[in-house]
Amino acid sequence: MFDLLNLPGVRPVDLRAANKAIVVIAEAVEGDPPQCPECTKPMYRHGRRTNTFADTPMQMQPVRLEISRPRYRCDVCGKTITPELTFLDEHRRATRRLVDAICERCLGMTFHSLAEQTGLAVNTIKSIAHDLIGDLERTVHYETPVIMGIDEVNLAGGMRCVITNLATNNAFQMLEFRTQEHLKPFFKNLPDKEKVEWVCTDMWRPFKRSFSQYLPNARLVIDKFHVVAMASEALETERKKYQATLDKDERVKVKKSIRWLTLKRPKNLSPAEAEALEVIRQLIPNLAVAYDFKEAFYRIYDEPIKEAAMRAFEAWENTLPDDELDNFHSLAKTVHNHYEDIFAYWDSPCRITNAYTEGLNGLTKVANRMGRGYSYEIIRAKMLYAKYARKVGSGVRIAEKTGGSQTVEYGPHIPTLVEIAESGGLD
Ligand SMILES: [Zn+2]
Q1: For residue 68, how far is its CA from the centre of ligand 1 (angstroms)?
Q2: I need a surface site. Which of 25, 69, 360, 401 has the fewest CB within 10 A?
């Protein structure tokens, strides 16, 4: 029979169709009887044994290999053995090439469809994926970011800590939670710690403690995104308070969502929206005041020079009315609490790139696409080790000391990761 298996040490002898599978019957090629592994005496044939293994699919159907192997017995010590076949993963009842094929695909496909295609149990696929992730964890290393972003993304039932490379827009690492217990070991074990120059994050206070002792050259900067978001939240509180005071006729006059009109930056309003905003300003003068404070706060970030930004903030704070706009007062307080790190923005490269916000939005999109039916561990691996996304931005460089070439990887490129997720490739 034609050797359709191409596996060393066995030859196919028959083929039959079973329920949703192709069964290949194969026999181990027999050589000379082996020596007893216990007492080195020659062994004798002692019947055969047949076992079934899953193999790579054929004709889009799962394949089951029924392999019949000779057994041998030692007359002296009574030991019996079945010679091993190197292409088998005995533990998984599958050929190694099938396990390899599953490793290639399991982070880009659902476990259920892989189980269906191969005839293996879903749990076996899971266990293969689990081992693969362990290997990846040990062997894949990404370049330590010079500009590091640290934030939280809601994923697999919790707020996960994502660490990004803001210079290249790649995902660098993901931690189960953003706590001292998770961050400290991460910073402690980070290779090339001295490379990190900037750490860009939000106003989470314990953060400073967890990194400052480990990253000797890093400065903390609080990203604009988180600071201005507080101005929008403060405005929202005012809007909710005043919107309720409008009567039915007045509401009809506005036509559009007051929320969106007031949250949008004026430059992004269409002429019709700008007109509607003007109507709101007339109807609710108190909201107009709050709106102007929101806009003035955003404009602090339009200042090109740090000192000018500091002065703009001071002027903004000084014009806040004393007993009103509580949320804007607490915003001012927060700015004072993080003054140095907020205004470090003007010294940092985060000001030039928008990578922080883009990366965060990108990862949130990816998270929204996934997250059903997988554990955190699997989702993390699907994001962090997605093969195609890892190729973008990575390359080869010449090592300084040895002169040899060295592969450099930055981690999965976030916009590429979003593309893959949106086409269903991370499901
Ligand atoms: Zn023996």
Answers
A1: 23
A2: 401
CA of residue 44 to ligand 1 center, whole Å: 10
How many angstroms separate the alpha carbon of residue 92 from the centre of ligand 1? 29
Tell me how far the alpha carbon of residue 28 lies from the centroid of ligand 1, in angstroms.
Answer: 23
Q: Which residue has the tokens 């005496």?
A: 41
In the reported structure, the alpha carbon of residue 238 is separated from the centroid of ligand 1 by a whole-number distance in angstroms of 88
Full DSSP string of 341-389: HHHGGGGSGGGT--HHHHHHHHHHHHHHHS-SS--HHHHHHHHHS-HHH
Taking the C-alpha atoms of residue 186 and residue 310, their distance in angstroms, rounded to an integer, is: 34
Exposure b/e, 159-197, CB count within 10 A at least 16 = b: ebbbbbbbbbbbbbbbbbebeeeebeebbeebeebeebb
The token pair at 151 is 């934030």
CA distances from 417 to 17, 143, 207, 422 (A): 40, 18, 27, 9
**If you measure from the C-alpha of residue 82 to the centroid of ligand 1, how many angstroms do you get, rounded to a whole number?**
14
Does residue 257 register a pLDDT over 90?
A: no
- The reply to whether the predicted model has a pTM over 0.70 is yes
Work out the number of other CB atoms within 10 angstroms of the CB of residue 378: 19
**Alpha carbon 57 to its chain's center:** 30
pLDDT band at residue 396 under the 50/70/90 scheme: low
> What is the model's pLDDT at position 317?
97
Please report, as a single letter, which amino acid is at residue 368. N
Q: How far does residue 42's CA lie from ligand 1's centre (Å)? A: 8
| CA 43–ligand 1 middle distance (angstroms) | 7
Q: Extract the tokens encoding 417.
A: 């990761």
How far is the centre of ligand 1, averaged over its atoms, from the C-alpha of 88 (Å)? 25
What pLDDT score was predicted for residue 48?
93
CA distance 37 to 81: 9
C-alpha separations of 12 from 31, 50, 82 in Å: 17, 13, 19
- Ligand 1 geometric centre to CA of 26 (Å): 28
Query: Distance between CA 86 and CA 96 in Å, rounded?
Result: 8
Q: Report how far apart, in Å, the C-alpha atoms of 70 and of each of 11, 29, 47 are.
A: 14, 9, 6
